[in-house]
């Protein structure tokens, strides 16, 4: 996957969430993206992953991300974003690679609510990241 494809997939995943804070209560709403992890497939050891903390939503267009992905050295490996679901806030992390991927929902106070949100995240993840 090229850096541009990785950025576009992450943006599409984020764009699948509503940003309308006056939406229906059962629809997850994205608030902001806290950090992005980049991966350099050519590097080994500690130089292969770089974490960038940022605030905002436009991953592909963010200057810190563009600096790292323009030359093709780094691709986006994952991100963490804040989501409001049924008036509860959660941190959602998605990570992906060629062989393994995962999604994580944190700050779960109500287990059933966390499970509902996780099912939603899994559906979005499969829609935007799975390659056949």
What is the count of helical runs? 3
The average pLDDT is 79
| Structure classification | alpha+beta
- Rg is 15 Å
Main sheet characteristics:
5 strands, antiparallel
- In N-to-C order, the SSE pattern is HEEHEEEH
Distance between the termini: 13 Å
Kindly describe this structure:
- With 132 residues, the protein is an alpha+beta fold.
- It has one domain (3-129).
- It has three helices and five strands, in the order αββαβββα.
- It has helices at residues 3-15, 63-69, 111-129; strands at 29-39, 49-53, 75-85, 88-96, 101-106.
- A five-stranded antiparallel beta sheet has the order 2-1-3-4-5, with helices on one face.
- β4 (88-96) and β5 form a beta hairpin.
- α1 packs across α3.
- The radius of gyration is 15 Å and the shape is globular.
- The model has no long low-confidence stretch (mean pLDDT 79).
Q: Key terms for this structure?
A:
30% helix, 132 residues, five-stranded antiparallel beta sheet, 32% strand, 5 strands, alpha+beta
Write the layout of secondary structure elements.
Blueprint: H1 3-15, E1 29-39, E2 49-53, H2 63-69, E3 75-85, E4 88-96, E5 101-106, H3 111-129
Antiparallel strand pairs: 1-2, 1-3, 3-4, 4-5
Helix pairs in contact: 1-3
Put the structure in a nutshell.
Residues 1-29 have a biased composition (Basic and acidic residues). This protein has 132 residues and is α+β, with helices and mostly antiparallel strands.
